[in-house]
Amino acid sequence: MRQQLRIHPATAEHEEDIIRLALANHMFEVGEIGGMAQMLHGYLDGSLEDHHWVVATRADDVVGAAYYAPEPFADRLWNLYFIAVDPDCHGVGAGTQLLGHVERALQDRGEDVARILIVETSSTDAYANARGFYRARGYDEEARIRDFYGPGDDKVVYWKALTNRTPEPAHDAGTAGVTETSAHGLVDDAPVGAGEVLRDDHQVNRFT
Ligand SMILES: CC(C)(COP(=O)(O)OP(=O)(O)OC[C@H]1O[C@@H](n2cnc3c(N)ncnc32)[C@H](O)[C@@H]1OP(=O)(O)O)[C@@H](O)C(=O)NCCC(=O)NCCS
């Protein structure tokens, strides 16, 4: 299946779609979505400065989304707080393109702004695919906080330097029979702003 994906800044019209992605991937239950909605509203109304939500769209359909912001109390370290792809589109490169977009957007701002990107996830089986996804894209398991999300549910922190540009791993599009760069027709048009500051929130950390 050929995907024509475009990655661009999220707007208010994408809010419902982003929440749908989180629910469809069982990252939250309906009653837990408030913290995520708060982050979205803060981005949309500009009160969370230098926070970035981007969406991957195919035609007018939102098939993926990502959210990243600078980590407070750290030196030019950014956190990918959210990344999700429509379950119907898993495994065909949208997540790789979203992650690549985030990395390039930060790298383009230079080392004075961004040195490191981290992403936090759960140690449970439900997130085994996500952990494999990060490892395959050059992220090292840097830290683990035992029982962070609950008994037997550790927080695992993945880490990647942004300062050494390295070629992105080629994505095997499998049965699609196409390469990542040519198959998905990525149009990457998200501008990158300036600023700083992030309010940390454990519920946010959990959904990446
Ligand atoms: C993790 C996620 C964003 C990856 O997006 P994706 O579009 O499926 O990923 P891609 O197609 O670009 O890459 C797939 C790669 O990730 C892995 N992968 C992760 N989830 C997969 C899935 N459901 N099906 C197939 N491969 C999956 C594969 O190992 C594959 O690696 P490879 O390309 O080296 O073979 C996506 O699976 C997702 O939304 N998962 C649910 C939400 C989630 O866990 N988010 C991260 C929270 S920490």
Which descriptors apply to this entry?
alpha+beta, single chain, 8-stranded mixed β-sheet, binds coenzyme A, 208 residues, Aminopeptidase, disordered C terminus, globular
Outline of this structure?
With 208 residues, the protein is α+β, with helices and mostly antiparallel strands. Helix content is 26%, strand content 28%.
If you consult CATH, what is the topology?
Answer: Aminopeptidase
Largest beta-sheet details? 8 strands, mixed
In spatial order, strands of the major sheet run 6-7-5-4-3-2-1-8
The backbone outline, from C-alpha atoms, is: globular
Oligomer: single chain
**Rg computed from alpha carbons, rounded to a whole number of angstroms:** 16 Å
Q: Give the domain tally.
A: 1
Overall helicity: 25-40%
The CATH H-level superfamily is: Gcn5-related N-acetyltransferase (GNAT)
CATH hierarchy class name: Alpha Beta
Mean pLDDT over all positions: 83
Question: What would you say the CATH architecture is?
Answer: 3-Layer(aba) Sandwich
Strand content: 25-35%
Q: Ions, cofactors, ligands: which are bound?
A: coenzyme A
SS element count, helices: 6
Measured distance between first and last alpha carbons: 27 Å
* SSE string, helices as H and strands as E: EHHEEEHEHEEHEH
Give the class from helix and strand content and strand pairing.
Answer: alpha+beta
Low-confidence residue ranges: 172-186, 189-207
Extended strand count: 8
